[in-house]
Structures are given as C-alpha cells and as structure tokens.
Amino acid sequence: MQPHYEFAGFMGKRVHLGVTGSIAAYKALDLARALQRADCMVSATLTKAAARFVTPLSFEALGASPVYTDMFDEAPGADTAFGHLEPGQAADALLIAPASANTMAKLAFGLADDMLSCQALAFAGPRIVAPAMNPRMWAAPATRRNWDMLGELGYIRVTPDDGSVACGDTGTGRLAPQEEILVATLKALAPQDMAGKRVLVTLGPTREPWDAVRFWSNPSSGTMGACVAMAAYLRGADVTVVAGPTSLVFPCGVTVTPVTTALQMFEACTDLWPDMDMACLTAAVADYRPVPFGDTKFKKATSAGAGITVQFETNPDILKTLGGSKREGQKLIGFAAETDNIRGEAARKLESKNLDLIAANNISRQGSGFGVATNEMYVMDAKGRKEQWPQLPKTEVAWRLWDHLLLD
Length: 408
Ligand code: PMT
Description:
- With 408 residues, the protein is of the alpha/beta class.
- The chain folds into 2 domains: 3-189, 3-Layer(aba) Sandwich (Rossmann fold), CATH 3.40.50.1950; 198-405, Rossmann fold.
- It has 14 helices and 22 strands.
- The strands form 6 sheets. An 8-stranded mixed beta sheet has the order 13-12-9-14-17-18-20-21, sandwiched between helices. Strands 3-2-1-4-5-6 form a 6-stranded parallel beta sheet, with helices on both faces.
- The two termini are 35 Å apart.
- The site of ligand PMT has 28 residues, from helix 10, helix 12 and strand 17.
C-alpha cells in the first residue's frame, strides 16, 4: 500500500467486518490488517458461506475479537445472548467486504435470517458495503436495483472493479482495491471538520524538458502532498490535486489533474484557485527551466567532445501568485525545502508569499524531505505561532497541518 494510505490515529475506533461467501473473502484478512495498522480494533462476522472460503480462526489469529459465525454460536468475548445487537452498540462502523449478491439483497430488503444480516439491520452507525461477484450477477437487474436501494438506505457504497474474475469471465464484479475500501471506512470514522471545503493540493516534481529525451527535475515522490490531500479528503473536503509526474494512485473521490512542467502547474493552479477555500502547495516546482535545445535529441557528437552550456529561464512562482490574489477567507499553506537557515527562510517565505501557514523541512536530514515516508517540520503561521515537530510519518504531519490551519 502506498504511504499516503497509511493513516494511523484511529485508536479507540472499532470496525465490525462482515465477510460473505466469495472467492474474494481471503482479501478481508488483508483488510482487517490494514484497519489494525490504522489503529482500529476489528471484530468480524463470517456468514456460513464465507466460512467455507476462510476460517474464523484466521481472523481470530489476526486479533479480531469477537468473531461471530452462526446466530447461536458462542463467540469468545461476545455477548452470547445479544450478539446480533452487540456490533450496533459497540462498533463505530460496519464494513461488509466482500458482500455477495445474496447479502446485498438481504441488506436492501431488511432480511435478518443470519447473524450478519441481523447485525446490519440493528446497526445505526455508518455502514460500508463493498460487493464482489460474477459480472453477470452484478449486471442483473435485481442486483442493480438492490445496489440503488442500498444507496437510498444510506450505505456507503464502494463500487466493484473491472477485470477478469475467478471463473474466467471479464467485467465489473471484482472486489474494489483494498485502498478504496479502507479509505471509505476511515472517512466514515474521521471527523468531518473540513466538509464543504474546496481544497487544492500540488505535489510531486515538475519536469522541464530540454530536448526530446532529457529534462531538468528533482527527486520529489509526491508522498508529502498525497498525504496532505488524503488527510483533507478523509476529513470531508472536496479535494483537487495538481500532480507532477509520480506513480501515486488516489481514491476515485479525489480529482487529479496531471501536469508535467511548472508552466502547466501554474496554469492549472491559477485556473482553480478562485474557486478554492484552501490550498496547500507541496510540489517541488523547478524555479528555472532550460531553454530548449529543440524537439529532437541532442547528439553527443554535435558537442565535438567539449562540454555544453545550457541556458535557463525563470518559471513563475505559483505560491506567490496565489498568495498575491488571495481573497478574504481563503487560506494558503506553503512548504519550504531548505538545507540551512530553516527558520529564517520559513519566516521570509511566509511573509513574502502572503501565506497563512508555512511548513519547512530540512531536506538534508535523514528521514526528512524527499522520497521518504517521514518528515521533520518547522511550522509557523501568520498569527505568530511557531512549532518544531519531531520526525513523524507524513500522514501524521499532514493531519497536524490541517489541525493547525483550522485553529483560530
Ligand atoms: O514529494 P516527497 O518525496 O514526499 O517530498 C516532499 C517535499 C520535500 C517535496 C516537500 O516536503 C517539500 O518541501 N515541498 C516544497 C518543495 C519546494 O519547492 O520548496 P521551495 O522552498 O523551493 O518552495 C517554496 C514553496 O513555493 C513551496 O510550497 C513550493 O511548492 C512553491 N513554489 C516554488 C517554486 C515555484 N516556482 N512555484 C511554487 O509554487
């Protein structure tokens, strides 16, 4: 899983995982582990059919507790008389993954003829459903109707993926990627304190072409920005990412505008900014671009064995431009990648770019800056608050940055 999905900090939250009869049932074990890495407690119910594919013991061995199977089972640690009500009283979210066509039908019509369907009916909190089935079953009118009904009943629905399924058929029906299901669940657990906010995030490097094959760039992986984007998304914001070239994948709820050069990033950001409430620019934008040699490949022979001189021209400063056109109520966060005089540079950029908050990292420090999953930040805001944070996962840094900006 890419690092921007590894949000911990859901300590004290319990997710009840419902597993139904599908070849994808084994993937629920990985989901349980991913939820535990987010610090969630996990309990589970396996339908009879699910228990033919994976065993309750596998979930218990991973630390899920209690693990229910039959209505009249005595699950260790469970309320044996009222097990069908217990998740509704004690869990914070109910996640049914994979959900078979049969279970979807039961949920849609409110049937309660086994432990999982009883528990779902008695569950008043957020319910997430991630189906998996044969594409023809998924396309069947009855399943389409049940899917719509689940939406009307308030289920958070994670649409299955396209591709080939176990029986050899191809189409829609594969269990959605783990990241999509995890994010839908964590979003249901997270405070929605950024709901309704439109947030712009830039991330990654830019690439400034010189000839047909060469470009000027830097080692940004985009992870820091991806964490900032995901934290805002989990907290309910409507997030648009302007991404330089990276290999990052985002959940389908995040809008991604891919760009390559600083000029393209500038165009995209200046277009989007007037409609945004907040922006956080983490991208490592090239301050200069080479004056292009041309559209063809520069041939070594043409340099006749001597060195070459490449000319550079200045790229626009995106952050400064957004700061300069900031309207009342808009909030702007900038980053600073420094090797020395971090505090001085942070203060200078905060002021000169009209920012509300600046996050400066020492990129020469191990475990900080480019290409790693952690960062060490010095943060200062326009109200004069200054904080030095220890080395933290970038997910945690991102969460804290929004906390800091939302402070009054
Ligand atoms: O992507 P990762 O591998 O996770 O690495 C994270 C990071 C090191 C890239 C990130 O933490 C970081 O420090 N990002 C800012 C990098 C940078 O370009 O810093 P700067 O001090 O040169 O720029 C200051 C600010 O102005 C930044 O918000 C930058 O996005 C912005 N800027 C810079 C130049 C430019 N032409 N336009 C800009 O908007």
